[in-house]
From TrEMBL:
Source organism: Malassezia restricta (strain ATCC 96810 / NBRC 103918 / CBS 7877) (Seborrheic dermatitis infection agent)
GO molecular function: diacylglycerol lipase activity; monoacylglycerol lipase activity
Name used for this protein in its record: AB hydrolase superfamily protein B1A11.02
Reactions this protein catalyses: a diacylglycerol + H2O = a monoacylglycerol + a fatty acid + H(+); a monoacylglycerol + H2O = glycerol + a fatty acid + H(+)
Span of domain Alpha/beta hydrolase fold-3: 72-284
EC annotation from Swiss-Prot or TrEMBL: 3.-.-.-
SUPFAM superfamilies linked: alpha/beta-Hydrolases
Keyword line: Hydrolase
Pfam family, one: Abhydrolase_3
InterPro entries (alphabetical): AB_hydrolase_3, AB_hydrolase_fold, GDXG_lipolytic_enzyme
Length: 314
């Protein structure tokens, strides 16, 4: 039975990759460089495995001098889709406006690589920066990501601690993973109307979970589900944004209510903030079909930039 289930997971995963590549190609104009004053280069980051490297795009402001702070970012994927470079708009804008280095990092994908492979790769990227204090301002490091990438950024920010990670920005993160048969208890949105993005059906989320985890995986492991970290583990500055028509809205909002200590998802001084994006679904920023969606993307990016800037001033 298990080999047949595995075959189905592989077949569906490869099918989704093909469909995703087509969608990305057809919507390329939705994702442009936010600033031409940024140098973009492909680099290789050493991993914990001898001889294996992690690909990353490094964004550096033109004419930058001296050691710059670093923002590390991981793309959405469901731990399955291969999409390095898809967040070029966000990454180039952050690099330009914060005068920082942005590392948009890849990570191993499922079903070929099971948990904690991707999580290890994200951690290795941060450890690479920390080990190169001659090249980077390691006193000012922030992390962020979208969906699965947001999950891992949140996990890293709590795991590595606020002494090393100053802030975290997560777009519609998969903040609470659970057994596939219990997804109804953690997934949900507050609106069925949206301009841009996609709605993740339960069957697709089940596929992603089954692709990345094994039957023996502890779904209460906080590294896999940031929801289970104590609020005190996260950096002082955390921002989470999610569309109200996104099926990951419920878990995103629940996480921020927990770590902010507020029913609104935002604490008194605004350092931990939930950003509700009206009339948008999952990846509205990546596949923005309307001008209004692109304006919401720009607004959310601006909020993230302000939060990261504030964390680096502490």
């Amino acid at each position: 039975m298990w080999p047949l289930k595995n075959l189905v997971i592989y077949a569906l995963s490869y099918g989704l990759r093909i469909l995703d590549w087509i969608q990305i190609a057809l919507s390329r104009r939705c994702r442009v460089v936010a600033s031409n004053d940024v140098k973009i280069e492909l680099i290789r980051i050493p991993s914990r495995d001898s001889g294996r490297y992690i690909r990353a795009y490094r964004y550096t402001p033109a004419n930058a001098t001296g050691k710059l702070p670093v923002y590390l970012h991981w793309h959405a994927s469901g731990w399955v889709l291969k999409r390095l470079g898809i967040d070029i708009h966000l990454c180039s804008r952050i690099s330009k406006e914060l005068n920082c280095v942005v590392l948009e990092c890849d990570y191993r994908k499922a079903p070929e690589n099971k948990y904690p492979a991707a999580h290890n790769d994200t951690e290795d990227a941060v450890l690479y920066v920390l080990a190169n204090e001659h090249a980077y301002d390691t006193t000012r490091i922030s992390v962020g990501g979208s969906s699965a990438g947001g999950n891992m950024a949140l996990s890293l920010s709590a795991r590595l601690g606020s002494e090393r990670i100053k802030s975290c920005f997560a777009l519609y993160p998969a903040a609470h993973l659970t057994h596939p048969e219990r997804l109804d208890t953690v997934m949900g949105c507050v609106s069925d109307k949206f301009r841009s993005g996609v709605v993740i059906p339960h069957w697709c989320m089940k596929l992603f979970i089954n692709a990345y985890t094994t039957p023996g995986t502890d779904m209460n492991d906080p590294r896999l589900s940031p929801m289970f970290y104590d609020a005190s583990k996260f950096p002082k500055y955390v921002a989470v944004a999610c569309g109200d028509a996104d099926t990951l809205y419920r878990m995103s909002f629940d996480l921020m209510k927990k770590i902010s200590g507020s029913a609104s998802g935002t604490n008194v001084d605004g350092s931990r903030k939930f950003i509700c994006v009206p009339n948008e679904a999952h990846e509205f920023n990546t596949f923005g079909r309307t001008r209004a969606s692109q304006e919401e993307r720009d607004r959310v990016e601006g909020e993230a930039i302000n939060m990261i800037r504030a964390s680096w001033r502490q």
